[in-house]
Protein: Probable glutathione S-transferase
Organism: Cinchona calisaya
Amino acid sequence: MAESQGVKLLGFWVSPYVIRVKWALKLKGVEHEYIEEDIFNKSPLLLELNPVHGQVPVLVHDGKPISESIVILEYIDQVWKQIPLLPQDPFERAKARFWAKFAAEKLQQYAWKALCSRGEEHERAVKSSIEALEKMEEELNGKKYFGGDKIGFVDLVAGFLSYQLPVYEEIACMNILDSSKFPAITKWIDSFRNHPLIEQELPPKDKMLAYFSKRRKEILLVENQNASRK
Ligand SMILES: N[C@@H](CCC(=O)N[C@@H](CS)C(=O)NCC(=O)O)C(=O)O
């Protein structure tokens, strides 16, 4: 495939931002070279390619670097037109962008906060996660995927729910994704996770449990130290 020449992805194995880009490349059949980064000891290449944030993912296409996972997804969708991720209709497109933004900026952030906080802050974050999930449940109702019959833009952005949220729940002993309360999301998770191309890019659960338990401890420790300094 001529246009897929010179595609590189700088990533980090458990990053939900990276994984959504990997899924998009897989779904579209774009061959690429994957370069694993150590985000705790960033390479000169990463800092050169993403000098503003120094974060992964970075997609490099024909030598040009693109950062920010959602921007990358849109770029991929415009360059490799097969298996479209965003709808063609302008209104439906705007709606898909709206829900992707909601999943990334609300749900994902609340769930992370719920994992990495204690006490009232934790309770508030769990409540906000559940309320955000209720909105996603309503949006999904009746459809197999957020994108309709096929996996689309919103599915890729909300995909972290299917494999990271259960890990957060186990570590922080919390119940956000109650299947009786969220039947549509529960069904969606099942279809999404079991899609052969999605499944291939899911990090091993035991490795995620170990990684996020450690991150949570580190973040809570820093918060305790800051609180005792006040
Ligand atoms: N808004 C960015 C977030 C990317 C991000 O937070 N990446 C993390 C890995 S999960 C990272 O590179 N962290 C290193 C750092 O922030 O210094 C996106 O959507 O791509």
About this structure: The chain has two domains: 2-79, 90-205. The beta strands are 7-11, 33-36, 58-61, 64-67. Residues 90-205 form a domain with the Glutathione S-transferase Yfyf (Class Pi); Chain A, domain 2 fold (CATH 1.20.1050.10). The chain has eleven helices and four strands.
